[in-house]
Write a structure and sequence with these properties.
Structural class: alpha+beta
Keywords: ATP-binding, Glutamine amidotransferase, Ligase, Nucleotide-binding
Pathway: Amino-acid biosynthesis; L-asparagine biosynthesis; L-asparagine from L-aspartate (L-Gln route): step 1/1
InterPro entries: Asn_synth_AEB, Asn_synthase, ASN_synthetase/amidase, AsnB_N, GATase_2_dom, Ntn_hydrolases_N, Rossmann-like_a/b/a_fold
CATH class of the largest domain: Alpha Beta
CATH architecture of the largest domain: 4-Layer Sandwich
Shape: globular
Catalytic activity: L-aspartate + L-glutamine + ATP + H2O = L-asparagine + L-glutamate + AMP + diphosphate + H(+)
Number of domains: 4
Protein name: asparagine synthase (glutamine-hydrolyzing)
Length: 600
Amino acid sequence: MCGIYLTNIPYENGIVEEKLNSISFRGPDYTGIETVNDLTFGHLRLSILDLDPRSNQPMTFENLTLVFNGEIYNYKTVKKELRDLGYNFNTESDTEVLLIGYKHWGKTLLSRINGMFAFSIYNSRTNKLFSARDRIGVKPFYYYWQNGQLEICSQIRPLLKNKKINEEAISIYLDTDYIPSPYTIAEHVFKLPPGNYMEIDFTTNSLEISEYWNLKKVKIQDISYDDAKKELHNLLKDAVKIRLQSDVPIGSFLSGGIDSSLVSSIASNVSPTQINTFSIGFEDPKYDESKIAEQYAKIIKTNHTTTICRSSDIMELIPKLTEVYDEPFGDSSALPSLLLNKITKQYVTVALSGDGGDESFIGYPYYDSLIRNKFIIDIPYSIRKFLAHPSLLKIFGLNSHRVRNALKTKTRNDFIENIYTRKGFLLKEQRQNWMKHYQGYKKWSNIFLQKAADLQIKLWLENNSNVKVDRASMAYSVEVRSPFLDYRVIEYARTLPMHFKYEKGRQKKILRDILKEYIPEEVFNQPKQGFAAPIGTWMRNELREEFDRTLNDKFLNRVPNFNVNKFKQLYEKHMSEKEDHTTYIWKLFVLSKWYDEFNF
């Protein structure tokens, strides 16, 4: 895992080095800069496989030059195929396998590799550049393209100088907690969508983006539950095993949840040595899962470390938040994620995680809400619209946020989308065009819950979860690998009958039944708190002065398309403990810090 940079802009000496230094935390072990023809390549290396300098980047093979961020988990298999075809290798790295694999197969290499990656390969003979991003969007890929000028980078900070703010992106951020691909916070800077590759011909100054992978229309397997459980268990074992390949120390994150405990259990079972596990706890018992995690660690026999997160820790990490999350990012769980990686780095450089399990196996609480309120959506809209009148809601006691949404929402799809966004809630003018990039979920399945899961995989997983994990881990030069983000696991989960995953409110049923083989059910069958800090309480108390000072009129009036008066009402209701508006207040707080950091 590293940082990549590439440009054809003729910067003065030292500028490219300055750009790389601004994100040096991504790769502290080696900085490489080379120029080929009119292209300058930059690379920041975090050494994981083949620690020898021979695997430094940029790497060249014949007429090809590569910069690569990520890991190819099945590189040994691909390497054997290439050796059988007559190729020789000078390193033990997956980087060389990727480069020679592209030499032989071209873009069809993408269907052969399993990993998390973002890379660019330049062909000096044809003067063409080939770039690609992994299927699920685990690794970031930003690019600037304007009038034949190109910049590519693993983070957006090096690309922001002299750019204008993208006001549409600010509105999208206020709708969600993040800026989804292909948008970014700056005009003319974009994210390459997951499962896509980009080809640039510098001779004709043409750029073309194509898709090589996506979710497909679901075809449910005719399979028994026991057979499905066995197949999934074997698949997860392989996904864990190939992610344990490392030439540096490796551990695993362990919370009180099903996903991380299953990953850690499998890792402990297949690893030849005792693994280290790590968790974050909170003083407030409503948020603390550390005691449960410690129980798990004893059962699966790991060397466990617990760190308690306090409000003072959060304040210390806020400058780090704006340093490494260089686009506005409103998920407050980024803060404990930063702390977790800070502690983890003291022991290991690579850590497994359970990210992705909730998305594929119906694990979030709002799936329950979808099922509970599904019958409301099936009532004709004209009747629901009548029932949504405030006086009737009060009479019938229908004050739930989800119920109100269900009554007011025109279609099932709109109701699903409202899980992930409050469109126009804090805006003067409602803007929804950005959702056009994520409409595929409507055609992939006719199953209500699977539709919601598919949208979450394509929208939330890439733009929230993956961003949070990548930036928090890279901030401390830690590589995080999640077996549940293996595309084979995601594809397999979608073919399982829904009642294998969700049955009568029992979420992640099949994962729970696999976990029983490692941890007794009475131990892991405890309420999950979720990985979030008690920000809402802290902002009313310890952090109140900081929030009052930061969210002032001067800042609020600078935010484009923003309903200042509505926000002030929410702010007052939250601080007086009448209502909970943590999410909205926190995202504005983060946006303010971002404005200060980048002087937009």
